[in-house]
Write a structure and sequence with these properties.
The complex is a heterodimer of chains A (413) and B (305). Chain A is mostly helical. Chain A has 16 helices and four strands. Chain B contains ten helices and 14 strands. Chain B folds into two domains: 216 residues, Rossmann fold, CATH 3.40.50.300; 69 residues, Alpha-Beta Plaits (2-Layer Sandwich), CATH 3.30.70.100.
Amino acid sequence: MKNIFKILKFEYLSCVKNKAFIITTIFLVALMLLSTALPTIIIGLMDNDEEGSNGEAPVIGLSCEVYEKELAGSELSAVYPGYEIRTVDEDKETLKSKVNDGEYSFAVLIDSELSFTYITMNNSLYGTDYETISEAVKSMYTVKELDKYGISQQDADKLMNVRITYETVTTGTDQTKNYLPVYLLMCVLFLSITSYGQFVAQSVVSEKNTRAMELLITCAKPRDLIFGKVIGSGLAGLTQLAIILLTALGSFGTLSKDIIPSEIFDYIQISSSTVILALIFFILGYFIYAFLLGALASFASKSEDLNNLTSPVVLVLTVIYVAVAIMCTGDMSGSTFMTVLSYIPFSAPMAMFVRATLSDVAVWEIAISIAVQAISVYLLGMLASAIYKIGVLMYGNPPKFVDIIKMLAKSSK
Amino acid sequence: MVIEIKNLTKSFGEKEVLKDIGFSAQSGKAIGLLGRNGAGKTTTIRIIMGVFYQDGGEVLVDGKPIDREKIKIGYLPEERGLYPKKKIGEQLVYFGVLRGLSKPHAQEATARWLQRMGMSEYIDKKLETLSKGNQQKIQLAATLLCDPQLIILDEPFSGLDPVNAMLLKDVIKEMIAEGSAVIFSSHQMNYIEEFCDDIAILNGGRIALSGEINEIKRSYPRNNIEISSLQSKEIAPFIIRSLSDCIESADIDEKSSAVRVRLKDPKLKDRLLSAVMEQGFDIDCFRVCEPTLNDIFVEYAEGGI
């Protein structure tokens, strides 16, 4: 037992000092920094585009004869805050040339009460200026019409701009706020369990391939070896995840906070309980799959054999991920299918995580699922030790599944 | 300390690999474990190391079942294996700690053994950067790091050049002199004869022969005589002609140019010597040829697997 700590320390340090591990961590941290800083960068670039070199507000040229210039200007500036609306008496050609010269960001020529010409240099595929200008023109028309009924422009503006406020009271789980972070965390869960599990498998094969196992197996019990390896690699994985997530949170807080509209934060609220659940299910899921993959890898003599042995497990994990993801996006996190999945040890880490965070689940249900997984981890750990003991000294072609069962049955006698 | 292997049996599936194996090793002595490939040597060693459990029999230390937590064992596996991509010092300390040394003790032992092997300068190098012979020396350092009471060496000399082989021989002799018990498995009989007082020959999972090498050799009939002389070409025909009633054969060994005579009875040795002397031949050496370990091995290890 005391060897487990020595082995896990060695494995942990081997992992975190591993070049590939360091490079991956740096790459992911850089990616996180870039992606969280991206809104700032894009907005910065857009500002530069729009503000021009002298830093002044971008200009919209507005030519209008059918409405009062004051009304047209105020309605347009209401929908284009941050722009300077320059009300001019210019014909289409002049406006076009000024847009072309860059004097105006774009120009609007109101032809009649209910039609306008939108003049722009580049018509973006995703542009929404038509709708925005239409709304402004509609307002101009409404105000003008209401004026005929004796309602002043100010009163009309007030009437049209009444704001309805609302409040949602959620007694269970608010999916609108949880969905995005839960979905992202589930992706992280799947990717991290798969990659760290594979890392354990790779490490077992390399010890066997280099015959370091010949010596290791005489220094420590197989149980200590596989537990030490799985726990050590798992801790290294957690370290990497922690570095990446802390970078994400830190950079998100500093780089993007002022840029991203506060409404978006409403959709990415991560409660501490969600994070704790993600952590618990990562640990359980990792152990379940790492033990399985590590044990199977012990039968591989060469790295080439590894894929054949571990791909069924990775396939099962992927199918579960896809199934849970479909349930998650299809708003079926509370379905019976998900309930069943959340108690099967192999699917429970992802399924129960999604259920617990997106639908109403009693605490005892989560507790049972965690208990089922914890017991499975222990049993799989013992099974993995038994398989590992047989596998690590076996060279040549990997045995068939039936043969493994037979060997296990014999060794347990 | 006496390590006794008693009545070991072991099967893998239907195949019975060890059948009632027994021998013993003791402090300050080395025993040679001989056998052809597949005879059961590695399985026996793995049972001693606790990697496999025996189906029957026991491994005793001073009459009590072996406690591998208490007795320090150094093992050099036939399939050499360390971490190629890790620093030598780092991995030696790791193996020392796994064998029960404290970290400072393991660090001290690593430095000491690397110095003994003349490899101190490589402590921070990766193993894969070393030549095969040097890697072998690191492997031996890993074996001896815990100052083992029992040393198990499986083909320790394979891949070593004569200079490194000499170094290894010296180290093993030192360890024996300091009181370690050595179990030495090899096919290189000259090394076995050099180190070991006792041998156990395994054949088909059984002990085909075991005991003290000298006694085994003496137990063979002493009727093979070798006569070294510059006149070998005359001596051989003389013996065939005049002593035909005493000998089974007489011929000249082409390599050493000595005359090899097989007597019908060891007691006829004196008669052979006097006949040759009386004839006035100039003789350099007249001796009884004992069988070599190689001869004994071939005799006992043939067939059976």
